[in-house]
Amino acid sequence: MEMSVRIIRLKEVMCMTGLSKSSIYRYADGKAFPKSVPLGGRSIGWVEAEIVEWLQGQMYSRK
Questions:
Q1: Cβ–Cβ under 8 Å, residues 24 and 13
Q2: Is the whole-model pTM more than 0.85?
Q3: Domain that holds residue 31
Q4: pLDDT value at position 30?
Q5: Domain holding 17: CATH number?
Q6: Confidence tier at 1 by pLDDT (50, 70, 90)
Q7: Where does the signal peptide begin and end (predicted)?
Q8: Are the C-beta atoms of 8 and 48 separated by less than 8 Å?
């Protein structure tokens, strides 16, 4: 069974979360935000499913 993993770049993470670049990096320094994935050189990305899961957690924790 092959699993498809989509890696998204910073701009898309910003769009999905509504967070600024500096806020994303600040959250990334903590343990709760998904870790970035090195893509080579200075490029990084995030696993889309992990960002979606984090967003869902944020929504559930507000109750």
A1: yes
A2: yes
A3: 7-61
A4: 87
A5: 1.10.238
A6: low
A7: none
A8: yes
3-state secondary structure the chain: CCCCCCEECHHHHHHHHCCCHHHHHHHHCCCCCCCCEEEECCEEEEEHHHHHHHHHHHHHHCC
Which candidate, 21, 26, 2, 16, places its Cα nearest to that of 47? Answer: 16
Spatial separation of the C-alpha atoms in residues 28 and 13, rounded to whole Å: 12
Q: Is 1 part of any domain?
A: no
Q: How do beta strands 37-40 and 7-8 pair? A: unpaired
Tokens of 43: 């490029």
Number of domain units in the chain:
1
